[in-house]
Write a structure and sequence with these properties.
Layout lengths: L2 E6 L7 H14 L3 E5 L2 H7 L2 E3 L27 H13 L4 E6 L1 H14 L3 E5 L15 H22 L2 E6 L6 H10 L3 E3 L7 H13 L5 E6 L8 H11 L5 E5 L11 H19 L5 E6 L2 E6 H6 L7 H9 L2
Parallel strand pairs: 1-2, 1-4, 4-5, 5-10, 6-8, 6-9, 7-8
Antiparallel strand pairs: 2-3, 10-11
Bound molecules: adenosine-5'-diphosphate and 6-O-phosphono-beta-D-fructofuranose (F6P).
Length: about 325
Amino acid sequence: MKNIAVLTSGGDSPGMNSAIRAVARTCAHYNIKCTGIVRGYSGLIENDTKNLYTRSVRGIINRGGTFLYSARSEQFKTNSGRAKAFENIKANEIDGLVVIGGDGSFTGGLKFSKEFNFPVIGIPGTIDNDLFGTSHTLGYDTALNTATEAIDKIRDTAISHHRLFLVEVMGRDAGFIALNTGLAIGAQEILIPEVNMSSDNLINSLKRSKSAGKTSTIIVVAEGDKTGESVFQLANMIEEKLPKYEVRVSVLGHMQRGGSPSCFDRVLGTQMGITAVESLLNGESRVMIGIQNGKINKTDLSKAIKGKSKINKELLRMSKIMNT
Ligand code: ADP
Ligand code: F6P
């Protein structure tokens, strides 16, 4: 193992840079080369690389986004695209690859590893927290804090105008961000894809809160929630059924992907980057580096992709108690 490559792929997340930095500096620590692949799998196919030395990754641990950029590459989903990528792996004399990304990136990385019998280690870099085998994906903690701060600000104006706000948060098809930020900001209701809350139940809950004298309300909606066709359709439905409510919608969107990583994510990225390089040096492959109960662990990549990360529905029950 003389040359380890690292790439970031799929949706970027805060903390990716701390993981890149840790991979590069751990390689230097063990006197091996580190090759950065620019723009994820697209860069691997186009041979867009840069040598990463200790000094190359200075001043990035506190920066959001990814210093190596990211991309979504349809070509890597084809055999010819992955074959081209492997040609570049050989041309650059790369002996192992660290993939920092989500389940899609891991799916591609696992295929690549099997097709070419090539060592690949995954670091779960996504704000969605939807990967089996880890309590935290890299960027999730920062996204929770970003969304919480944003919804606190929305609450100020909701109170001032006696309004009901529907706030949509990210998560693709997982409700982790919605569930935790909803509890953190005192949402009246939290709508997540893992629990089907009918629109009738939602209306009844709003009627109860109104009769209990609540003058402003926040509902946090996960983007993958299916209660309505969309958060805007939900707003229209509420206005029709509860004309007394003045309803507004706020979609937080991509701000949840940015920002300086939290201390937790910087430490997590460092732990994962170091563990990924040391795993490759120990001859390991096709595992995802994760964390459970504060301890760094490893999960087969196939399980990380196929498994379903369980959401803590107890938090939903607790949220209802808080809204008695
Ligand atoms: P994430 O990793 O955040 O889930 P995507 O699902 O967009 O993001 O996947 C990122 C990239 O991983 C894709 O653009 C593609 O290059 C690669 N990828 C995703 N799914 C597959 C697949 N089934 N086969 C090969 N490559 C894939
Ligand atoms: O997977 C991370 C994520 O932010 C999801 O939460 C979101 O649905 C998706 O990426 C958005 O993808 P894009 O950045 O391509 O619009």
